[in-house]
Amino acid sequence: MFRIRLPFVHYRFSWPDALIGLFVSFIYFIPVSLYQSLFGLPLEQAWALIHFSLWLLLLHNHFGDYAMGGWITASLPLIMAYLGGLPEGAARIHGLMAIHFW
Q1: In the chain, where are the structural domains located?
Q2: Would you tell me how many other CB atoms lie within 10 Å of the CB of residue 49?
């Protein structure tokens, strides 16, 4: 069962957590150039993809699930090398989906 955890109701505001969240949100915008070069997305679509994935990332805490991030950082060069060998366009996006579903 899911347990919905609402901000300011089920967990309090904390300045250290807010500063870390702000820093992490800035870091999260770095892949915009990767989306542009690897997938050929325009800038607006790359920003939209980042914002959508950030909102999905926030859902972990609201449903009481603790996410463990950081695995993507170590595998990013391997993922980029694999996707670079695929033809640009839908094949690269399908390849990335296959990696995430695996």
Answers
A1: 1-67, 71-102
A2: 15
